[in-house]
Amino acid sequence: MAKFVRAWESADLDTLVALLTDDVFMSMPPMPLEYEGRDVVARFCASLFGAGRRFDLVPTRANGQPAFGAYVRAPNGVSHGAGLYVLALSGDRICAMTCFENSVLTWFGLPRSLPSR
Predict the structure, then answer these.
(1) Residue 51 confidence (pLDDT)
(2) Element holding 2 (H helix, E strand)
(3) What percent of the chain is predicted at pLDDT more than 90?
(4) How many alpha carbons fall within 13 Å on the CB side of residue 88?
(5) d(CA 37, CA 25)
(6) How many CB atoms lie within 10 A of CB 108?
(7) In this structure, is the dihedral angle defined by the CA atoms of residues 71, 49, 103 and 58, taken in order, positive or negative?
(8) What is the distance between the alpha carbons of residues 70 and 84, in angstroms, rounded to a whole number?
(9) 50-54, 62-66, 81-85: least confidently modelled range
(10) Phi, psi torsion values for 103, nearest 5 degrees
(11) Nearest C-alpha neighbor of 93 from the set 13, 28, 1
(12) Which long-range contacts (CB under 8 A, 24 or more apart) does 86-93 make?
């Protein structure tokens, strides 16, 4: 999980992709958006990191699985809640990622924003 956090927070797409299984599945309930396969998920993640967008992740658990509150860094240094990422693992690789909207952050005891680092 530490590799995932470092890759996501530094927008290191190559390292992130190396952590994914070939058939990784990404979904975003309740929206009907789903992505399947390493290349498709990589393109989606590249779009998230586009325009210099960077994130901070705060670990938690969801249904016994590793999960992270995701916060987008604003120019003023404050990070605003973007959502919750829940990971499913196959061995030491990520086989699924479910992304929930930011309204669920408080259900996991996470703040809506993080102070400037």
Answers:
(1) 79
(2) helix 2-9
(3) 86
(4) 12
(5) 6
(6) 16
(7) negative
(8) 6
(9) 50-54
(10) -65, -20
(11) 1
(12) 86/62, 87/1, 87/4, 89/65, 90/21, 93/19, 93/20, 93/21
**28 phi/psi in degrees, rounded to 5:** -140, 65
Residue 70 pLDDT exceeds 80: yes
Q: Is the peptide bond before 30 cis (omega within 30 degrees of 0)?
A: yes
The per-residue DSSP string of 95-109 comes to: EEEEEEEGGGGGGGT
Say which residue the tokens 């309740």 belong to: 30
| pTM for this entry | 0.92
The secondary structure element, H or E, covering residue 72 is strand 65-73
Cα 103 to Cα 42, 47, 87, 109: the distances in Å are: 25, 22, 18, 12
Could you tell me if 27 and 34 are in contact, meaning their C-beta atoms sit under 8 angstroms apart?
A: yes
**What one-character DSSP code corresponds to residue 40?**
H
Question: At residue 115, what is the residue type?
Answer: P
Residue 56 backbone phi and psi in degrees, to 5: -115, 140
**Cα 74 from Cα 45, distance rounded (Å):** 18
